[in-house]
Design brief:
Length: 417
């Protein structure tokens, strides 16, 4: 079993470049099915989820070449003739559900097993199914497989009962080649929704309004291949901002879209950090003792659920008491018991964690239970006294490209064993 060994207490200084956005990439790769042609996807992060999706597309008949050094995937989906994604394939990640929307859009038929992925709470797909049905598909769930099929897909007006990134993207995928116009009302506005819409438009789709809560998709007859570059990862960037704060450091986070980081920038400033924006980078500088603050995870542009766990690790050493409310996923406090092993003072009541700041954490052996829990433990290890061993690194590798190399380049003492 792979572990990360971290010797805490070293200031991070210098500059790092942020990789492409995992949560956009995991939708864009399956979306390439709609092209039935060759797509060149640039600025992909070299992470496990990207490799797994490449393998799934290959199993479905695509030709896939991913160069992890250059971060480019060439994927030709011409020879994908149908989509039956088995449990073995789909269980590997949550984003396998995007195969449903993409294949339904192209073949009017898809069979995909229920998705897997990190255990952070229930991840319903009722809004995805509601959208497919509104477009004219019949959706049946049998033996763990979701079967979606339509004679033809016809544009419809779909109001989402909850703002869902996954449902918004999946409905966009299914609707690109539907007859007429589809309107998604109460759509998610996250940067990855916009990025996927831009990718689809580069493949010939006609999608307008992504980034607002009303998205219109005018169905087109045919789509085609394209070359596209994925946006920078706001969650990786936010994690490194938190790590800079955790170590009293001075770090330039480069190759980002600062606007996407507004919720985290605002909170770190509230805690006493100095943050300077400069074009495509942010400089995060520590000047004083961190102050406690309250966090509530919300849909964009609120504070992202994916940064709640790293942020709560940082709050364990802030001056005062912080309240963290997780409104998106009920199972996203699994890192708390691990942080307690390191001396953190946290009480969880349902979806709320009360964190009483302590002067310092102490290194311990801890175990990642999911991707961002792993990132939270790395944050804790960087600021703890002594050595922290983080087990179950495979979760971290799902979503962070070269995390230890990036940290080493900033002066951290970290190694993989
Ligand atoms: C709003 C939000 O922060 N979404 C995040 C969520 O997206 P992901 O796509 O997983 O989640 P959704 O945005 O779909 O879910 C938002 C909320 O809606 C509920 N829901 C969702 C779909 C559905 O059919 N029915 C339903 O009730 C979920 O339980 C959740 O409470 O995790 C992704 C990976 O970590 C992030 O990239 C997204 O930014
Ligand atoms: C939980 C996450 O990803 P996924 O939904 O792909 O499991 C995440 O990115 O924090």
């Amino acid at each position: 079993m792979r572990k990360l060994l971290i010797e805490g207490g070293h200031k991070l200084t210098g500059k790092i470049s942020i990789s492409g956005f995992k949560n956009a990439a995991v939708a864009i790769i399956p979306a390439s099915i709609l092209a039935g042609d060759k797509c060149v996807i640039e600025n992909l992060p070299n992470i496990r989820d990207v490799h797994v999706l490449g393998e799934i597309l290959e199993e479905l008949g695509a030709t896939v070449a991913f160069d992890g050094e250059k971060k480019v995937m060439e994927v030709d989906t011409e020879l994908v003739l149908s989509c039956h994604a088995t449990y073995e394939m789909a269980k590997k990640l949550r984003a396998s559900y995007y195969l449903l929307g993409a294949a339904l859009g192209r073949f009017k038929k898809a069979q995909v097993a229920f998705p897997g992925g990190c255990d952070i709470g229930t991840r319903p797909i009722d809004q995805h199914i509601k959208g497919f049905e509104a477009l004219g598909a019949k959706v049946v769930i049998e033996h763990g497989i979701i079967h979606a099929e339509a004679e033809e897909l016809v544009g419809a007006e779909i109001y989402l009962d909850v703002v869902s990134v996954g449902a918004t993207i999946n409905i966009m995928l299914a609707a690109c080649m539907a007859k007429g116009t589809t309107i998604i009302d109460n759509a998610a506005k996250e940067p990855h929704v916009v990025d996927v819409a831009n990718f689809l438009n580069s493949m010939g789709a006609d999608i307008r309004g992504a980034g607002t809560d009303v998205i219109k998709i005018h169905g087109v007859e045919k789509m085609h291949g394209c070359t596209y570059s994925v946006i920078p990862d706001q969650i990786e960037a936010g994690t490194f901002m938190i790590m800079a704060a955790a170590t009293g450091g001075d770090v330039i986070i480069d190759n980002i879209i600062p606007k996407h980081l507004d919720p985290i920038t605002a909170k770190l400033r509230e805690m006493g950090m100095e943050i300077e924006e400069n074009g495509e980078s942010l400089r995060v500088v520590s000047n004083s003792k961190l102050k406690a603050c309250n966090i509530k995870t919300l849909v964009y542009p609120g504070f992202p659920t994916d940064l709640q766990q790293p942020m709560s690790a940082l709050l364990t050493v802030a001056n005062g008491t912080s309240i963290v409310a997780e409104t998106i996923y009920e199972g996203r406090f699994k890192h708390v018991d691990e942080l307690k092993r390191m001396g953190a003072k946290i009480k969880v009541e349902g979806r709320v964690a009360v964190i009483e700041g302590t002067s310092r954490l102490s290194g311990a052996t801890v175990s990642a239970t999911d991707l961002r829990a792993g990132a939270a433990l790395v944050v804790a290890g960087l600021m703890a006294e002594g050595v922290t061993e983080v087990e179950n690194v495979q979760y971290i590798d799902r979503g962070y490209d070269s995390i230890e190399n990036k940290l080493l380049s900033l002066g951290a003492k970290i190694k993989r064993v």
